[in-house]
Design goal:
The chain is of the alpha/beta class and 159 residues long. Helix content is 36%, strand content 18%.
C-alpha cells in the first residue's frame, strides 16, 4: 500500500516572486493539508516522502506532526524527475506504507504508465477526466496495483 498525494493549493506560479520550488501553500492549502492529515492518519503509514518543493513538504507537515514521522525528500517526486525513477521508487520497499507528495505534472505522467484498465478506473475515481488529473490537495490510496488486480480509493481535497 502507498498513498499518492498531490500537493495542496499554493497559489499561482506566475504570481510568486521567488523560485518556484520555494512557493508555499496558501491559507486554503494549509487547511487542505490539515484535512489530508485527518483523512490519512489512520492508515498505519510508516514513511512520508516529498518532492523537495516547499509546497509538497508543507502538504505533509501536519500528517508528519500527527504521526511523529519525518518528511523525507525524494528527488523521484520532483516536478521534472524522470518517470522511470518514480516507477522504480514505487516498486521499492521504501514506498510500501508511505505517503508520497508530488505535483500534478508528475501524477499525469505516472498515470500514463499504469496499465490501461487501471488508468481508466483511476480517472473514473477522481472524476476529472484524463486531461485534468487529481485535484490539488487530494490523495489516491493504492492498496494493490497490477494489471489484473487493482484496489484504490480516492480522498478528495477539502474545498
Amino acid at each position: 500500500m502507498f498513498v499518492l498525494v498531490r500537493h495542496c493549493l499554493a497559489g499561482e506560479k506566475g504570481a510568486w516572486p521567488g523560485p518556484d520550488e520555494c512557493r508555499p501553500l496558501t491559507p486554503m492549502g494549509q487547511a487542505q493539508a490539515l484535512g489530508l492529515a485527518d483523512g490519512l492518519a489512520g492508515l498505519g503509514l510508516t514513511a512520508l516522502w516529498s518532492s523537495p518543493a516547499e509546497r509538497c513538504r508543507q502538504t505533509l507537515d501536519p500528517l508528519a506532526a500527527r504521526l511523529g514521522l519525518p518528511v523525507r525528500d525524494a528527488p523521484a517526486l520532483s516536478v521534472d524527475a524522470d518517470i522511470a525513477h518514480l516507477l522504480a521508487f514505487l516498486s521499492s520497499r521504501g514506498a510500501a506504507g508511505s505517503a508520497l507528495c508530488t505535483h500534478g505534472e508528475v501524477v499525469a505522467r505516472l498515470f500514463t504508465h499504469w496499465p490501461d484498465p487501471v488508468r481508466r478506473e483511476v480517472w473514473d475515481a477522481v472524476g476529472r477526466g484524463e486531461d485534468k488529473g487529481m485535484r490539488k490537495g487530494s490523495a489516491l490510496i493504492v492498496e494493490q496495483l497490477s494489471a489484473t488486480d487493482s484496489r484504490f480509493r480516492y480522498l478528495p481535497p477539502l474545498e
